[in-house]
Amino acid sequence: MDFNLPGEDDPRRVKVRSWFEKNPNPTYAQLAAQGWTASNWPEPWGVSADAEMQWIIDEEIQRAGLELPYTINAIGLNQCGQSLLTHGTEAQRQKFLPPALACEEIWCMLFSEPSGGSDLGGLRTTAKLEGDHYIVNGHKIWTSVADHASVGVLVARTDTSKPKHTGLSMFLIDMHSPGITVNPIIDLTGNKNEYNEVFLDNVKVPADALLGREGDGWKLAIEQLQTERVGMTKPGVVWGMGPTARDLMDGLIKTGRISDPLLRDDAAKTYIEGEILRLLTYRNMSNRMNGKPAGFEGSAGKMLSSPHGQRMADIAKRSQGAAGMIRDPDVLPLPDKKWGMFSDWDYAYWFSPANTLGVGTQEVLLNVVAERVLGLPRDIDPTAKIPFSELSGGRAKAAE
Ligand SMILES: Cc1cc2nc3c(=O)[nH]c(=O)nc-3n(C[C@H](O)[C@H](O)[C@H](O)COP(=O)(O)OP(=O)(O)OC[C@H]3O[C@@H](n4cnc5c(N)ncnc54)[C@H](O)[C@@H]3O)c2cc1C
């Protein structure tokens, strides 16, 4: 593989950059009109950009001082939107995609429930068809950005007589519907926007909000999580985004803190991990250029990048000595990169315990890699073939 990424004089880059020169401070709607907010999507939504072209467009968006659209509307543009492209109806695409691409309607992912996020098959939220709409009842939790989302990608149980994985369906719901209550949960970062719990009480969802067919929920959810995990196999501190081990090393050198032998040793190990992740990013890029869909190897990548981010954030804060115990946006000097709230080491540090939980815990990813990548025997699930309504009393009752 050629590791020379498109340089400053690459004609494709020159063309994109000259557009930004003519259109300083563009809105995301303007970028969407160019097909650049999801450039890899086919026209009219994107420009069918190959991985290199997507790389160029993303770099130029950041160079223009803008946050990447897929970090602002991660659910809408990274994983669920792509599902809508493939499995949605034309009417759904026309309704949902333009405002998502313009980052005017933010999407959230209503998967996890208090009964457990790892075992999506055990979810209890129900959607019952009544005439031309479904009535949804349930409780979701850890829903990122739900407090300002307009569209919710909901997985709910439409058939309790089927085994747990087969009775699930996916819907695109209006988060402003009557019966939806969103309560922010404040995490270690002190940022109330990361997670929320969402209550759904007799929410009326039009039947045409169903994505794919009834019973497709499990398949669509897994497809979306795989896509999300591949995107996280990057060397940035928070789920692939934000400063990298190269930035960490630069900062330690500029501040002279690299002279501490213990820090230097840890930083060197982390730097090597970062380089491995960088090469894995190129491999993913090459897979995409060769038309390979996101596979289970995304789980292996996420499994490496999440603890790597934790180690980097820890080294950055530790390098401050006792001062590292307090909040400080200027832990180490950083290049001017726009990664939104993930841009600074301090935020990354307080967020970092979540790295190894969200989008699949480390243990669950180990299982995926063992079973799906290495071909080891599958975990036995005695409940997999039993109708959901016959599972332990409480669960069945909640779902009735
Ligand atoms: C930052 C962040 C953002 C998130 N955003 C969203 C979101 O937008 N939408 C959403 O729906 N959810 C979201 N989540 C929730 C996330 O998907 C869940 O936290 C995750 O799936 C784990 O579920 P849980 O927390 O219920 O833990 P549980 O599933 O209850 O797991 C508890 C423990 O048991 C272990 N465990 C579970 N099953 C197994 C097994 N089979 N083998 C071995 N060990 C096992 C787990 O590893 C974990 O240590 C987010 C979480 C975080 C941290």
Number of domains: 3
Bound heterogens, unique: flavin-adenine dinucleotide
Radius of gyration: 22 Å
How large is the count of helical segments? 13
Shape descriptor:
globular
The pLDDT mean sits at 89
Low-confidence stretches: 396-400
Order of helices and strands: HHHHHHEEEEEEEEHHHHHHH
List keywords for this structure.
single chain, 400 residues, alpha+beta, Butyryl-CoA Dehydrogenase, subunit A, domain 2, Butyryl-CoA Dehydrogenase, subunit A, domain 3, four-stranded antiparallel β-sheet, globular, disordered C terminus, binds flavin-adenine dinucleotide
Give a brief outline of the structure:
This protein has about 400 residues and is α+β, with helices and mostly antiparallel strands. About 40% of the residues lie in helices and about 15% in strands.
Explained architecture:
By secondary structure, the protein is of the alpha+beta class. It has 3 domains: 11-66, no CATH class; 107-215, Butyryl-CoA Dehydrogenase, subunit A, domain 2; 233-360, Butyryl-CoA Dehydrogenase, subunit A, domain 3 (Up-down Bundle). The protein contains 13 helices and 8 strands. Strand 2 (126-130) and strand 3 form a beta hairpin. Helix 8 (245-255) runs antiparallel to helix 9 (261-289) and helix 10 packs across helix 11. It is globular, with a radius of gyration of 22 Å. It starts with 10 loop residues before the first helix and ends with a helix. It binds flavin-adenine dinucleotide (FAD). The site of flavin-adenine dinucleotide has 19 residues, from strand 1 and helix 12.
